[in-house]
Amino acid sequence: MTSTGKQSAALGADFLRHELQEAAPRATGVEGYMEHDAAVYRTLLESTRAIPWKIDWASMEFAYVGPQIEALLGWAPSSWKNVQDWAARMHPEDRDKVVEFCVAQSKAGTDHEADYRALTSRGEYVWLRDVVHVVRDERGEVSALVGFMFDISERKKTEEKLAALQRELEALSFKDGLTSVGNRREFDAVLQREWSAAQRHGSPLSLIMVDVDFFKSYNDYYGHVQGDACLKRIAGVLSDAARPGDFVGRFGGEEFVLILPNTGADAAREAAERCRGLIGAAKIPHERSPFRQTVTASFGVGSVIPAEAGDPLAFVNFVDTQLYRAKDNGRDCIAAGKPAG
């Protein structure tokens, strides 16, 4: 440690001893205990790089700021005159929230912590954590604030990386591992959200269920690896056919689903026709299919304006019925309808 660093730690240790003596002036042997363990406090400050400070409550002026603050932020201790200097050197996005919180906690006499970004003399920002102790006088009134500043920049970087990874994992948990479109979990969440929105606004909501025709025969003939490749292509075709705001997901197996917000029956039927046409245009070979030996699909379409007592699951079951009606009608076609009531 440099001579300046040792001097800073010594000053901080003296400050800490003084504050503890002030807080407990009648405690037996406190002064001697502090003198005996001065090295402990010096080591604490050296290892944590904590920056001690004190603010007089009546004047809102700094009574003390540890000299270590200049090495961290570039501002000399003499430039920290009052709480306005502290607030002014705080990131604008953090300032109001942190100042209001600290003032409220201090007035209530509650010890507290606050994290914020502090401006350096170089125009950069460093994440700090202020740990604040409220000192009261003999009448129980707030007389001072005593605390430590800690540089938590590295911790914040780690937290941000972990948060990004968490968001990435959350996104992956809503995606089908094979086709990269939404999975059943995301379908359930999106359907519930769009159903509630349609209820609030009285707007139409449509659903398209898609089943790849004769897919078992496709797998038996081409093998499961090629079958997976086929499902990926179908997912890509459906995604290309979807409009911004539509949801495309894999419902399970060879079944896919599209959620179309603010879409009535006619537009939903047109969307299904567009999907059917694009699948046909892809001309994916299927030797076991009676339809031009290419992959085709059957479509069930439903449209509804959700009632207050409506049930989205019942709507899904209705559209699923339409899908099976299309398959019963010979496949490679569309069956559409509206739920009764």
UniProtKB/TrEMBL annotation:
Family matches, as Pfam families: GGDEF, PAS_3
Stretches of the chain forming a coiled coil according to its record: none
Sequence ranges assigned to domain PAS in this UniProt record: 37-100
SUPFAM superfamilies on file: Nucleotide cyclase (SSF55073), PYP-like sensor domain (PAS domain) (SSF55785)
Residue ranges constituting the PAC domain according to the UniProt record: 112-164
The reaction(s) this protein catalyses: 2 GTP = 3',3'-c-di-GMP + 2 diphosphate
CDD domains attached to this UniProt entry: GGDEF (cd01949), PAS (cd00130)
Name of the top EC class for this enzyme: transferase
Assigned EC number: 2.7.7.65
InterPro entries listed in its UniProt record: Diguanylate_Cyclase, GGDEF_dom, Nucleotide_cyclase, PAC, PAS, PAS-assoc_C, PAS-like_dom_sf, PAS_fold_3
Sequence ranges assigned to domain GGDEF in this UniProt record: 203-339
NCBIfam families associated with the record: GGDEF (TIGR00254), sensory_box (TIGR00229)
Protein name: diguanylate cyclase
